[in-house]
Amino acid sequence: MARIEPVAPLRPALPLTSFLFLGMWISTATTLNYFLDRRCGVENIGVIAQGHWLLEFGIVLLLIVTVVSILGRSTARTIALMFMVGLMCGVFLGSMAHRMQSLRMATLATHDASPVTVRAVEVAYTSAYGTSQIVKVIEGSMRGMRIQFSYSEGVAPLERGQSAFLSDMILPLARTEKSRTLYAKDIIGRAQVSSLDEYHYRGWMSPLYRYRALLAEQNIAIGQYSAITRGVLLGDRRGISDQLNDDLAQAGIRHFLTVSGTHIAVMSAGLIRLLSHTAFTRRQVQCIVLGAATVYVILVGY
C-alpha cells in the first residue's frame, strides 16, 4: 500500500515580523494622515475624513478575524495576529507623535522673544520667492523644534550642521492646507530672519560638518560645473542653474544629484573590493564599511 506523505504546513514567504511592521506602517501612516487633515482643515473623501477612523480600524480587524476563521491554520492565525498587533501599535505611535507635536506647538505659542540657538538640518534652498532653510532649536524650552527660516536679503544662510543665535521672533505655522506639508515634516514654526549672530559649529559631529563646508567651498572655487560634483558627492544642489537642471532632466540623469541608497551601495562595494585585497578579516571589512557609510550619511545629511 502506497505511503501517503503528510501535507507540509503553510509557511509564509516573508518572516512573521514583516507582517508586524507592515501593519504598524499602515496604521501609523493612516493615523498621522487623519490628524494632519484635522489640524489643517483638509476635507478628504472617505470614512477617515469623517472622523470614523476607529470604525474603519474595527472593520479591518473584523475582516482579518473572519479570514483567519475560514483558513483555520495555525500559521495564518499567527500572521493575522502579528498584523493586528502591528495595526494597534501603529495607531498608538501615530497618536503619540501627534500628541508630542501638539505639545511643542503649545510651547511655541507661549514662547517669548528671547534669543535661541538653532542648527541647520539641511542646505538652504533658493527660489523665486527667496532663500529658505529648515533649522532645529538646540537649546532651551523649545529644544528639538523644527523651524522654517526665510532669509532677508543680505543675510548669509547657515551651512548644514552650522549653529547660530537667532533674535527674530518665531511664529507658529498657520493651520491651513498650505502648511500641511510642513507639519508632515514636523516643522511647526517659521521666522523671517533679518540677522544671525555668532556662526559656529558645535557637538561631536562638528569636524565632519566643517569638512563638508570646506568641500563645498572648494568645489565652488573650481568653476561653473563644480555644482554637479557637489550635487553628486554631497547632495548639495546649490549653484545648479535652471538651464543645467533642464539639460540633466532631458538626459535622464537628474536623479544622480540626489544622494540615495545607490550612492552608498557604490561606495560600499568599492571599499569592499579594495579591502578584500588586504589582510583585514571579513568582520573587520564589514565594520570599516559600516563606519565609512555612517560618516558619509552624516556628511550628506540624514
Offer a concise description of the structure.
This protein is an alpha+beta fold.
Could you outline the blueprint of secondary structure elements for this entry?
Layout: H1 16-40, H2 53-71, H3 74-109, E1 116-120, E2 125-127, E3 130-137, E4 146-151, E5 163-166, E6 171-172, H4 180-184, E7 187-193, E8 196-200, H5 206-222, H6 226-234, H7 242-251, H8 261-275, H9 282-300
Parallel strand pairs: 4-7
Antiparallel strand pairs: 1-3, 1-5, 2-3, 3-4, 5-8, 6-7
Q: What's the overall average pLDDT, rounded?
A: 77
H-E string:
HHHEEEEEEHEEHHHHH
Secondary structure tally, helices: 9
Shape: globular
Distance between the termini: 66 Å
Protein structure class: alpha+beta
Describe it:
The protein is of the alpha+beta class and 302 residues long. Helix content is 51%, strand content 13%. It has helices at 16-40, 53-71, 74-109, 180-184, 206-222, 226-234, 242-251, 261-275, 282-300; strands at residues 116-120, 125-127, 130-137, 146-151, 163-166, 171-172, 187-193, 196-200. The chain is globular and about 80 Å long.
